[in-house]
UniProtKB/TrEMBL annotation:
<dbReference type="InterPro" id="IPR011629">
    <property type="entry name" value="CobW-like_C"/>
</dbReference>
<comment type="function">
    <text>Zinc chaperone that directly transfers zinc cofactor to target proteins, thereby activating them. Zinc is transferred from the CXCC motif in the GTPase domain to the zinc binding site in target proteins in a process requiring GTP hydrolysis.</text>
</comment>
<feature type="domain" description="CobW C-terminal">
    <location>
        <begin position="244"/>
        <end position="332"/>
    </location>
</feature>
<dbReference type="Pfam" id="PF02492">
    <property type="entry name" value="cobW"/>
</dbReference>
<dbReference type="GO" id="GO:0005737">
    <property type="term" value="C:cytoplasm"/>
</dbReference>
<protein>
    <submittedName>
        <fullName>GTPase, G3E family</fullName>
    </submittedName>
</protein>
<feature type="region of interest" description="Disordered">
    <location>
        <begin position="198"/>
        <end position="219"/>
    </location>
</feature>
<dbReference type="InterPro" id="IPR003495">
    <property type="entry name" value="CobW/HypB/UreG_nucleotide-bd"/>
</dbReference>
<dbReference type="InterPro" id="IPR051316">
    <property type="entry name" value="Zinc-reg_GTPase_activator"/>
</dbReference>
<feature type="region of interest" description="Disordered">
    <location>
        <begin position="311"/>
        <end position="334"/>
    </location>
</feature>
<dbReference type="InterPro" id="IPR027417">
    <property type="entry name" value="P-loop_NTPase"/>
</dbReference>
Length: 334
């Protein structure tokens, strides 16, 4: 069974790219999407439309190759057995190191079961202007292990930034199979269907990403029952140089969309924001990367949820859990 890994740093447009591929999916194929998130609450699964021919499984709360290595193996085995998909797409966390995931997929547990196809890494050209990101070990290794590169955020990048991104990728050796400018996050399906087996080997998994010796619980992440109205559930975490705060509300709690957008606009550009909210304008997805906030309709109805992620170096700009809950309580529609 073909397995496609679409990796890339925080906010580089991985989920948008996968959405574009789903829109082009052959009608006779059933796909399974495995989404890993650094945050504890889990947002990305809520951003996929429910449909019979695409099964989406979320694994929030850490990195697939270390914190969730055991959970990842169990979840994939279960997904293959129960859903029997024709194709699997795995989206690691933006802070996830792909080497450990590739090793897991090539291990005895999946021998003769899956074929790891070309690893696609998304690259936001604007990130090359940020020395802190370029120096990040995971950012560099995500590009080193890539068989192919999708340049995202094309409409938000200057011609100079795009040219610099092409030059940056051209410096990698051996050459990548292809570099595609994914206009508005769209990648032609042929790039997926015509891909070969992944060729990149030899990357060592950094010490920070070594699998945990303890077996984590399979429970948690996506919860069966939402919290009581007006009493949000809060989860926080910290690893790999980043911190996260996640909140989750009862679906009957209704937010003022303008107040939400105004509050998020006050937060530092370093803070990555993803959320799904029941608002007075209906259910909406809010997504902010590099300071740019987008708002789109959502089919999710299970609950409202929010995840904030920021570098630990930006901790003075990251609200505390209590101040975040208080600020968002003021955005609830009275």
């Amino acid at each position: 069974m073909p397995v496609h890994i679409i990796t890339g740093f925080l906010g580089s447009g991985k989920t948008t790219l996968i959405h574009s591929l789903i829109e082009q999916k052959p009608v006779d194929e059933k796909w399974a999407i495995l989404v890993n998130e650094f945050g504890q609450i889990g947002i990305d699964q809520a951003m996929f439309e429910t449909r019979d021919d695409v099964v989406v499984k979320g694994l929030p709360g850490g990195c697939l190759c270390c914190q969730l290595a055991f959970v990842m193996q169990a979840a994939l085995v279960n997904l293959l057995a129960r859903s029997q998909p024709d194709r699997v797409i795995i989206e690691p966390s933006g802070l996830g190191h792909p080497a450990g995931l590739v090793d897991l997929l090539r291990s005895e547990a999946f021998q003769g079961v899956v074929d790891v196809r070309d690893i696609v890494t998304t690259l936001d050209p604007r990130r090359l202007d940020e020395p802190r990101v370029v120096a990040h070990e995971t950012f560099r290794d995500q590009l080193e292990i890539a068989d192919a590169i999708a340049l995202t955020m094309r409409d938000q990048s200057t011609a100079e930034q795009l040219s610099a991104a092409h030059a940056f990728v051209a410096e990698r050796w051996p050459p990548r199979k292809w570099v595609h400018e994914a206009d508005h996050g769209r990648l032609p399906l042929a790039r997926l269907l015509e891909s070969g087996s992944a060729q990149r080997d030899g990357l060592e998994t950094p010490a920070a990403h070594q699998p945990l010796s303890a077996t984590p619980s399979l429970e948690g992440g996506f919860f069966d029952f939402p919290p009581a109205p007006g009493t949000p559930q809060c989860e926080s975490g910290a690893s790999l140089g980043y911190t996260s705060i996640g909140l989750r509300w009862h679906p009957s709690d209704c937010f003022d969309l303008d107040r939400l957008a105004a509050y998020f606009g006050e937060l530092s550009r370093d803070v990555r924001i993803k959320g799904v909210f029941h608002t007075h304008d209906g259910w909406r997805q809010l997504n902010r990367a590099d300071g740019t906030l987008s708002v789109t309709p959502s089919t999710w109805r299970q609950d409202s949820r929010l995840e904030l992620i920021a570098p630990e170096s930006s901790s003075p700009h990251m609200p505390s859990a209590e101040s975040l809950k208080a600020a968002l309580a003021d955005t609830l529609k009275s």
